[in-house]
Amino acid sequence: MFNAQPKFITSATKLEECPPAGLPEICFAGRSNVGKSSLINTLLNKKNIARTSNVPGKTQQMNYYKLGEECFFVDLPGYGYAKVPKKERERWGKSIRDYLMDRESLKLILHVVDVRHDPSQLDEDFFYWMGMNEKPFAVVLSKADKISRNKVNQAKAKVRRIMKEMNIEVPILPYSASSREGIDEIKKLITE
Ligand code: GTP
Ligand code: MG
């Protein structure tokens, strides 16, 4: 799957604009600037197929990438970005909720959290909501290169504790775009 030449397909602003459902989809969700687009690039071994930026709010639409004839990767806009006007944010929130709830070909949601920060209230709401709806998801702890291994393990334990309180059990995968640490585990999860 990861050997196929990835192709950008389309940008959608709502569920109705997504390509016809068929191929299995893996989407990348989480706050702005946590590294969702970077994770796609790292998985696909491409520098900039998904556009990244050190300024939050880079990805503004649901961007579809096709891997051969095997699956779609869907890069979602981040949430919690204060500079986006409230109206816009609400519209976005709704589109993404519709997508996550109703897209039948969605097979895996990778929820990205910056390993340096505790999950925000929005992250926790997201975990809860995914758990309640029995959605297939996993947590990726990004930017693991920025802190010590010890701290990474603490962050992982913390997320695991939060999940446990909600009775949710999902993979929690630390990873770094710069060192590529953890990328094989994420690939394995996707392939499975
Ligand atoms: P939005 O599209 O705004 O929601 O952001 P995003 O989640 O797609 O984040 P993006 O991939 O654009 O990355 C944000 C910034 O974090 C960029 O400057 C990246 O280079 C940086 N970054 C992403 N992943 C890592 C990582 O694993 N390690 C380090 N050191 N930097 C990273
Ligand atoms: Mg992005």
From TrEMBL:
SUPFAM superfamilies: P-loop containing nucleoside triphosphate hydrolases. The keyword Nucleotide-binding applies. Transmembrane segments: none annotated. InterPro entries: G_ENGB_dom (IPR030393), GTP-bd (IPR006073), GTP-bd_ribosome_bio_YsxC (IPR019987), P-loop_NTPase (IPR027417), Small_GTP-bd (IPR005225). Pfam families: MMR_HSR1. Keywords: Cell cycle, Cell division, GTP-binding, Magnesium, Metal-binding, Nucleotide-binding, Septation. The keyword Magnesium applies. Its cofactor is Mg(2+). Residues 22-192 form the EngB-type G domain. PROSITE patterns: G_ENGB. HAMAP family: GTPase_EngB. Necessary for normal cell division and for the maintenance of normal septation. Belongs to the TRAFAC class TrmE-Era-EngA-EngB-Septin-like GTPase superfamily. EngB GTPase family. NCBIfam families: GTPase_YsxC, small_GTP. This is Probable GTP-binding protein EngB. The gene is yihA.
